[in-house]
Amino acid sequence: MTETRLRTWTHAFGYGIACLFIFTLAMQNLRYGFYELFYLASGMAVLTLAGAVYTIICRRHQLSAPGHLVILSGLNSGMLAALLTMDAPGISHWAMPLLVLNLLILPLRQGVGLSLLLLVPMSIILFLEKAPADAIAITGGLFILLAVAALYIWHYDHMAQSAEDLAITDPVTGAHNARFLDETLQKEISRAIATGHCLSVIDLSIDYADEVADLHGRDQVQGLFRDMTEHLFGVIRAGDTLYTLKDSEFFLILPFTPEEGVRVIAERIRRTIAEHHWPVVGKATVSLGCTTRGSGDTRTDTLRDRAHQAMEEARRRGTDSVWFSPGETIET
Ligand SMILES: Nc1nc2c(ncn2[C@@H]2O[C@H](COP(=O)(O)OP(=O)(O)OP(=O)(O)O)[C@@H](O)[C@H]2O)c(=O)[nH]1
After folding, report:
1. What pLDDT is recorded for position 221?
2. Where in the numbering of this chain does the GGDEF domain appear (predicted)?
């Protein structure tokens, strides 16, 4: 299940339960003749229902739907207005579902901010109107509920972020993995087509990696991959991205980089790696295949294959070298 779909279900469920709860409150107040509370609860039930409908309408944009803030601000303001104008015992407890709804539906900071905007004036009203012991018990309970819910949401967000990072990161080098490469490259190709900017890529392979592994062992080679990743991150500029492929191969996406640029950076990478002293193995060299997107290149595999073939050509030409393969240009 995608994050967007999960959020849609959670939001719709949250609004649904809140609507049912508030509607029941409204009916009870109608039954006992508390008409002010009945109108308040009915208004809140309508707003929560509107929230559920809005969730379903905007199901494709759940992660950034701005209407939730408007709906929840309405609910919170209604609650505060009721506290200020009505003299109804127990109404402060209505804030509980509202706090949970704020944190469940809004991004953490917005949820906490909106909840505090409700809780702080509410605490002042309670301290002015009620006995100190009662006011402390109610506000204390509400603040504890807010803190626990906020902690839980923070923990969930943190876990979700860690899981996402793990899914796109190579466990050995810490660079992005091949799975994420295709996703990013496709986005960069679409961006280059839309803006007309140059896009270049580099396929980089460590020369004689198998021989190095036989000589020093698999663990030492993995150490070399890690050191080389760190080195590459130090050479490339912000906006470039680095990926670890299988078999001691790396891949670089260089947005806004023309043919002359990719030749410069590839040669710089080759030279700095050859000149560097690597722990355990001492010297290491790499072969680099580069290419720039031509107007006919719209697919990731075209660019990846061409860069890979260019890398093999560099290797055939004696390793420790760079080979550039031009992109295909379609005349319009
Ligand atoms: N994507 C990318 N391109 C680079 C990088 N370094 C150099 N280039 C390309 O090579 C060209 C010449 O780079 P340099 O020789 O460093 O000259 P420069 O004038 O300092 O380049 P700028 O970084 O554009 O200021 C740049 O305009 C880029 O197109 C890099 O780290 N990443």
Report:
1. 83
2. 197-327
